[in-house]
Amino acid sequence: MVAVGGDGQVTLGTTIMKADTRKIRFMLDNKVLVGFAGSTADAFALMERFEAKAKNFPGNIPRAATELARDWRTDRILRRLEALMIVVNAEHSLLITGQGDVIQPTDGILGIGSGGPYALSAARALIQNTDLAPAEIVRKSLAIAAEIDIYTNKEIVVEELPCPK
Fold it and tell me: Which domain holds residue 9?
């Protein structure tokens, strides 16, 4: 099983505008999970483009991510978009940035957004020291991030994808 989670907080400057936003979406017949951080409108525009790329390269999520990152970096309009994306399926966990990065971490653990480094650290510690299921590791990691980062709240949503053995 692979799990992706997100908090619900949307801020505008130092003001909390919304506390229950869903920052995770299923796509491609529920075979891919996409999470985002940053500008919501920009993230939705990028998710639509990613889905189109994934349909152009069926079954090849890394290629679709690379094509999106290339367009994001080189297109005059897209390069202004301010968001980060995590794309996960049963085989790959990828971070996609506007600088043209497509990163697949060695340990498969990713964190984005202001609370991302805290959640990432907590997840690594939990994986090394517990036998918790992936969804519970994600949930606890985000809760720890929410205790540290003022831009992360405890309205946590976790989604899972099965992985073939």
Answer: 2-159
Alpha helices, DSSP H only, in 13-77? 40-56, 61-74
Name residue 50's amino acid: F
Instruction: Read off the pLDDT of residues 144-165 as tens digits, 9 standing for 90 and up.
Output: 999 999 999 999 999 999 887 6
What's the CATH code of the domain at 51? 3.60.20.10
Please state the domain count of the chain: 1
Please calculate the CA angle 97-140-22 and round it to the nearest 5 degrees. 50
For 26-60, what is each residue's pLDDT tens digit?
999 999 999 999 888 888 888 999 999 999 999 89
Give the largest Cα separation in the chain, rounded.
46
**What is the percent of the chain where pLDDT is above 70?**
99
Question: 12, 161, 152: which is closest to 86 by C-alpha?
Answer: 161
Rg of the Cα atoms in the chain: 15
Distance (Å, whole) CA 46 – CA 49: 5
Task: Provide the b/e sequence for 76-88 (b: ≥16 CB within 10 Å).
Answer: eebeebebbbbbb
88 with 73: CB under 8 angstroms?
no
